[in-house]
């Protein structure tokens, strides 16, 4: 799979690029997804997908993937430019907690600071994908349709 960053911008009212993710959006708090907004989407964007992945988690799966997936959300309309805090609409994929929907940061105690990559991907088609896809399954299915993407990175460290 080949993906490249585009001119899209992803921001959050909860934290700045490289900033600390508030406890409210973690497994130690209310565990609600942060507000996200994107701009400068490419012409022809017909739908979006959002992923949150922690590449610092020391996990490698049998499939060769690494890190920990916290959120997989897709079938987001092309007219959307944001997700509200605690977003519960759209199609939920499976996270590595074994659930569907958002599961906030919660690195092991004493494991140090982890980086959390929130990705928005713009697609040139409005796909109707079934719920429960893993990050890998989603990326495999949408890869031919990705026309733009970018990320917002936040950090979290348990006390």
Verbal overview:
The protein has one helix at residues 135-142; strands spanning 9-11, 36-39, 47-54, 68-77, 82-83, 91-92, 114-123, 146-156. With 159 residues, it is mainly β. The strands form two sheets. The chain has a five-stranded antiparallel sheet with strand order 6-4-3-7-8, with helices on one face. The N and C termini lie far apart (37 Å). The mean pLDDT is 92.
Present the secondary structure layout.
Elements: E1 9-11, E2 36-39, E3 47-54, E4 68-77, E5 82-83, E6 91-92, E7 114-123, H1 135-142, E8 146-156
Antiparallel strand pairs: 1-2, 2-5, 3-4, 3-7, 4-6, 7-8
Summarize the structure.
With 159 residues, this protein is mainly beta. It has one helix at 135-142; strands spanning 9-11, 36-39, 47-54, 68-77, 82-83, 91-92, 114-123, 146-156. The protein contains one helix and eight strands.
């Amino acid at each position: 799979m080949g993906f490249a960053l585009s001119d899209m911008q992803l921001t959050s009212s909860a934290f700045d690029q490289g900033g600390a993710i508030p406890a409210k959006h973690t497994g130690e708090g209310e565990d609600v997804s942060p507000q996200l907004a994107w701009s400068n989407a490419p012409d022809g964007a017909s739908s979006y997908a959002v992923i949150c992945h922690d590449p610092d988690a020391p996990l490698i799966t049998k499939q060769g993937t690494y890190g920990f997936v916290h959120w997989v959300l897709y079938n987001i309309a092309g007219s959307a430019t944001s997700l509200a805090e605690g977003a519960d609409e759209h199609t939920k994929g499976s996270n590595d907690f074994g659930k569907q929907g958002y599961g906030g940061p919660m690195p092991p105690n004493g494991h140090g600071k982890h980086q959390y990559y929130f990705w928005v991907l713009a697609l040139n088609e409005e796909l109707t994908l079934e719920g429960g896809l893993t990050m890998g399954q989603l990326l495999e299915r949408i890869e031919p349709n990705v026309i733009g993407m970018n990320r917002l990175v936040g950090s979290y460290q348990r006390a």
